[in-house]
Design a protein that fits this description.
Blueprint: H1 6-16, H2 23-40, H3 46-61, H4 69-78, H5 86-116, E1 124-127, H6 132-143, E2 149-153, H7 160-170, E3 175-178, H8 183-186, E4 192-195, E5 199-200, E6 206-209, H9 212-222, E7 226-229, H10 258-264, E8 274-277, E9 284-287, E10 290-292, H11 297-305, H12 319-322
Parallel strand pairs: 1-2, 1-4, 2-3, 4-7, 7-9
Antiparallel strand pairs: 5-6, 6-8, 9-10
Length: 330
């Protein structure tokens, strides 16, 4: 097995232990780990250097196989590794990692500016769950001098809407907090529904906190535009090849206590964390690269992360028989 640099080991351990958490911090750490692997590699041949990078990527990927931003960081860097010598490969890896981290560092601010352009002075928005990307849009709009108000869904069962309400008040946005089931009643008074995303599929479907899909259906029925604010690290290239996004089922204790369970009697309790909103219910996806109709997000996905069926960290099919790498992908 190719050598994995100690920095890669340390980053992988932090991600696995959830010491490093959140889409952007995980992506940044993964790119930084590949940078360290490339910088310190003592590989003597291009084939050995590529093999080390692939091994490092697989080691990182194994820590959180269902995360979206982690493989995206690895794809971005590995698909840009080019050169015929070890030093050329090293320099292109460093340049790709630097470019990814630089874009990531300014992504939320850039996204906020794009999203703020959709908001007019005096608009009222409705939010669901807690999204720092949505808040970036609101913050940019406030910096432009726009007055906004917000209707915030509490977002059961963990009440992440309370966090959103607090952050909006920090931005001097008047907030009305409502129970989730009251959303339809307030949609006629709302100019935009703004939500984040945990993942975005190639067809423009959006995976987000449970309840997003029902809100989108109601918003469409009421004629209220619904906008998704999400950095491109939330794009899910695996869906290009037909993979589906796994929906996490969380512990029932978030929904019902043991005492309540005992009082009710024998029941089944499901607690899905996310749902999938089809693109036909969405008006736009706002990213740091601009806003897109949901159905066209696949173009951006291919541009950033490629569209091959073979992932860049996979072992070349003919390596065992030839002893060398095939093709140009690392």
């Amino acid at each position: 097995m190719a050598d994995v640099h100690p920095t890669v080991e340390a980053v992988a351990a932090d991600i696995a232990a959830m010491e490093t958490r959140g889409a952007a911090p995980i992506a940044d750490a993964a790119a930084d780990a590949l940078r360290a692997q490339a910088r310190e590699s003592d590989a003597e041949t291009p084939a050995a250097f590529r093999a080390e990078l692939r091994a490092a990527a697989r080691h990182l990927l194994d820590t959180r196989p269902t995360a979206v931003s982690l493989p995206n960081a690895l794809r971005y860097v590995l698909r840009r590794v080019e050169g015929e010598t070890v030093e050329a490969l090293r320099q292109s890896t460093l340049a790709a990692a630097d470019a990814f981290c630089s874009q990531l560092d300014r992504a939320q601010d850039d996204l906020g500016q794009v999203g703020a352009n959709r908001l007019r002075d005096g608009d009222c928005i409705m939010t669901h769950c807690h999204s720092t990307d949505v808040l970036a849009c609101v913050e940019a709009a406030r910096e432009q001098g726009k007055e906004l108000t917000a209707v915030v869904k509490e977002t059961r069962p963990r009440n992440q809407g309370h966090i959103t309400a607090e952050r909006l008040r920090d931005l001097d946005v008047p907030v009305t907090l409502i129970v989730d089931s009251a959303a339809r009643r307030y949609l006629n008074d709302v100019d935009h529904v703004m939500v984040g995303a945990d993942a975005i599929a190639a067809d423009g479907s959006v995976v987000n906190k449970i309840g997003t899909s029902g809100l989108a259906v109601n918003a469409r029925d009421r004629g209220t535009p619904i906008v998704v604010a999400a950095q491109t690290i939330k794009l899910h290239p695996d869906t290009l090849t037909g993979h589906t996004v796994e929906i996490e089922l969380r512990d029932e204790s978030e929904v019902i206590s043991q005492e309540q369970r005992g009082a009710i009697g024998e029941i089944a309790v499901d607690n899905p964390a996310f749902d999938v909103t089809p693109p036909r219910y969405l008006d736009a996806i706002v990213t740091e690269h601009g806003q897109f109709p949901p159905e066209s997000i696949v173009t951006l996905m291919r541009e950033l992360f490629g569209e091959g069926t073979t992932e860049p960290w996979a072992e070349p099919a003919d390596r065992r028989s030839t002893g060398s790498d095939a093709g140009t992908d690392p």
